[in-house]
Design goal:
single chain; rod-shaped; 33% helix; 2 domains
């Protein structure tokens, strides 16, 4: 049995218009992946595969994530603000003289070593406190 065909051109146009309306309504009834009426709203979803170039912006656990072409993922949540509550120790005055008038003595050498050791203690204090602040200023040494 042959398929029924529209009788004339007007029937065919009406059938095509109806098909277009059906397609348009099926597209508009789908929820969008993102929306931007009041800022971008990105729903939580599984990580997509890495794209061949560029990257993917997704959300996972209410955290925005960037996946780059190489497969690496990065959280886009900013670090909390620096509180600045840890104060490193301040170096004391140097024990060595600013200038040596005569030939250096063993005491001058010992004073310089004591000053260098004091600065080393202060520097280590700065490094350790910077590694334990929130947020960390640098990794733990």
């Amino acid at each position: 049995m042959p398929l029924p065909q529209p009788e004339d051109l007007a029937d065919r146009i009406r059938a095509l218009e109806q098909a277009v309306r059906d397609l348009k309504s099926s597209i508009t009834n789908q929820s969008p992946l993102v929306s931007a009426s009041a800022g971008w709203i990105i729903p939580n979803q599984a990580f997509p595969p890495a794209p061949p170039s560029g990257g993917h912006l997704t959300a996972s656990g209410n955290e925005p994530i960037w996946t780059e072409a190489g497969g690496a993922t990065y959280s886009l949540v900013p670090s909390p603000p620096f509180t600045g509550t840890i104060t490193p120790q301040y170096p004391t005055s140097f024990s060595s003289p600013a200038t040596i008038v005569s030939a250096p003595t063993a005491q001058n050498y010992n004073d310089l070593r004591a000053d260098a050791a004091m600065l080393q203690v202060c520097l280590r204090d700065v490094i350790n406190k910077g590694a334990t602040t929130t947020p960390r200023l640098w990794p733990t040494p």
